[in-house]
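Predict structure. Chain length: 348.
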Amino acid sequence: MGKRKAVFMSCLLAIAFGITAILVALAEKGEKSEGILCVTSFYPVQLLAESVSEGAEGVTVRNLTENHSGCIHDYTLTTRDMRLLSEAELFFINGGEMELFLEKAAKEYKKMEIVDTSEGYAFLEGVGHNHDHGAGEPEGEELHDHGLHDETDVASCTDPTHHHEVNAHIWMDIDGYLMQLSKVEEAFIKADPAQEALYRKNARACRAELTKLKEAFREAKEELSGIETVVFHEGFVYLLNMLGMETVHCISMDSDTQIAAGEAAEVIEECKFHGITKVFAEADFEETVEDIFGKELSCEVVVLDPITGAGSTQAGTEETSTGGKGVALYCERMRANLEGIRQTYGMR
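Prediction complete.
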């Protein structure tokens, strides 16, 4: 009997210790951050989310459009995307009509917090053509018969009937990107207050890097302000605007773009009138722009990086794994853009 009692008491003690261990583990789990799946709509927003959440326990950042290297105006959700969104707690989007596919996701996943990182931003609506070419032409006339094939062929920044009402490329404006950073920071803190100090620390570091980058652009503005040009990506309007440069015409290029004869003639007219010898495009369309405009105008086509994907680097830069260093990578690529512009105009 004594031996049985001893065994029984041992079992009770083991059970008691086991229950205590479980309770301690549960208490510790309650103190720690719960797991959060954060999904971003595309690359620039991904860089922010990774940077702000770097080192955060239980936080996973996934980019919805990871295999899409350009802007996502015409992106279509896949079955994989829908599955990913069904598991997400946070969904960071760029906004400004960039995510036209969002309506379906918003209806189906009501528990998912959708954070519009550009809400409240004063978007550019387009670029006015400076057509004060002389007597007989109405002052301020901006819109022309572009001779477009249809709405999806060419998107001229100056005519919202052929494109979106706003230029949504907010990340190419450093002030805009700072605003998006704050939206990401606050959303993480709201969803995961236990790790607020970490999110604040990471966001401060990002803000410091972006502020230094903004100062570099401010200094360059003194040299570049007033220069006129033509661009072939909407994001470059914001980029050059920070430098005080004036975009007299913008054509949004993508893989389906077909530039009509009327549109090409108008760009050529603009370049000749304004004495433009340098135009800006992304690497994928450098040859196309050169073929259409370069020979006619002897224009130099300068390649800039729109930072829309991991593979969208300009010549001379190398992409690396973003990890949690997304904003640092963004700053590196924006500085490369700035240096390319300065060199183009012979500035040291």
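Summary: The beta strands are 36-40, 59-63, 90-93, 113-116, 155-156, 228-231, 246-252, 278-281, 300-303.
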